[in-house]
Amino acid sequence: MPTGKVKWYDPEKGFGFLSQEDGEDVYVRSSALPAGVEVLKAGQRVEFGLVTGRRGPQALRL
To answer: Which of 16, 30, 36, 41 is buried most, with the most CB atoms less than 10 Å from its CB?
Structure first.
């Protein structure tokens, strides 16, 4: 499973970006967060499922 860090996340907008350790930035939506988690902090280390969407890499679930 890929790993990286939270680049930024806006809980009001419900999305943000993760930086992969060896690749491009990954888009993340609130629907990819685990149950009960509403906020991601910049710099937080995460593991995530990854798919390639129309606009590039997207996290499926953290």
So the answer is: 16
